Amino acid sequence: MDDSLRIAILLNPFDLAIKGGEYAPELARELLGRGHNVRGFGAPPGVIPRSGGDRVPGGGELKPEVPGVVGFSPDVIIAYDALSPAAFLGARAARKLQVPLILVESGSAAGGGRLTRFLRWCGERLWGMFVRRMANTVVALDPVARQQALSEGFDEQRVRVLPAGVDLGVFRPGLTSNYVRRHRMLGRLLMYVGKLSLDRGLDDLIHAFARTIAQGHDWSLVLAGDGPTRSRQALRAQVDRLGIGAFVHWLPSPRVEEIPGLMGSATLLAVPAVDERVRGIHIPRALACGLPVLASRLPRFENLLEEDGSGLFAEAGSIDSWSAVIARAAGSPEARRRWGVRAREIAEERLDWAVVAERFEEILLRARAGDEESAPMQEEGADEPRLADDQVRQDRTA
Q1: How many domains does the chain have?
Q2: Residues 33 and 93 grouped into a single domain
Q3: Rounded to whole angstroms, how far apart are CA atoms 33 and 12?
Q4: How many Å apart are CA 199 and CA 203, to the nearest integer?
Q5: pLDDT digits (tens, 9 = 90+) for 54-105
Q6: Are residues 260 and 338 in the same domain?
Q7: What domain range is 284 assigned to?
Q8: DSSP SS3 for 288
Q9: Are residues 129 and 233 in the same domain?
Q10: DSSP collapsed to 3 states, 318-384
Q11: pTM for the complete prediction?
Q12: Which residues, 6 or more positions from 342, have their beta carbon under 8 angstroms from its beta carbon?
């Protein structure tokens, strides 16, 4: 059997803004590199890399009168977020074409925002059962996404955890940053990169830093990011109150291209999250840079890090616990060196986009082969939800 697949990727346009939009484009790029024919739907032009030639099996041209996913005639359909409109459109196209449907679930942090919760509510009531029956596999990006898929009624045997990848060429050890020189950051750096908000555990991190390594005057705390004015003012007031202002550096939110150098200049990355609102997108980047990570013990982070392997875990929301892990990490240069080596190994073994794409490709090929894990195909129209006319007209372009 020819292993080259025609792959349709369905996105909701707002997903790119809400979730960063990195996973789908990077996965598409890797699948293209593995010889597959890829086309994206639902994203702005140019966001999803696509194949140069679009021909149907047998060498014929696409029919312009059959637009969208159906006209593309894919062998397999990937749709993002298990109960989203994209998942529904993917399920309809999969039923019509009798091809497998693979869902990618990113998981809604702490239930998601109001719009996310509303769309999930609509999806569950309007097409949830239909999508569940059509889905061959749900690829969850972390344990929180897996739990969400299970809570939405998807069969546990069809849900697999496969994390997002990282570009090991961009994020690599040995890089430096001009920030360090310009801001006169001296000594070793404990770095946080992300939103500067009171609900991100930063008050615990600052307090723990003040209790421990700030006393030695050879460490600095670097807080890189932006956030609500009130939160930033409160955090700065806390730093001043604790008398550690000379050892805390405030940086604006770095551009993506600036992050590798920042991580290359840091000694430790801190992720002091108190709940699942923090996805930990900087953890794979830090691992790829060989930067040890101190993180709250939360399921998303436990899926990426190894205790005393690539860093240490602290109990979320505990100043005492964070003080203990900071003191231990700061006082163990040999352990930090070992953690950094293992961090890069983890990135190479599990998080390289080439590795992630290879595992995703295995899922696609098994689904296409119709093995025992494949979902049963339905007769056209069977159990299909009846929607308003405008939704049906929208679906005809899929």
Answers
A1: 2
A2: yes
A3: 24
A4: 9
A5: 555 555 554 444 468 999 999 999 999 888 889 999 999 999 999 999 999 9
A6: yes
A7: 178-351
A8: helix
A9: no
A10: CHHHHHHHHHHHHCCHHHHHHHHHHHHHHHHHHHEHHHHHHHHHHHHHHHHHCCCCCCCCCCCCCCC
A11: 0.86
A12: 306, 309, 310
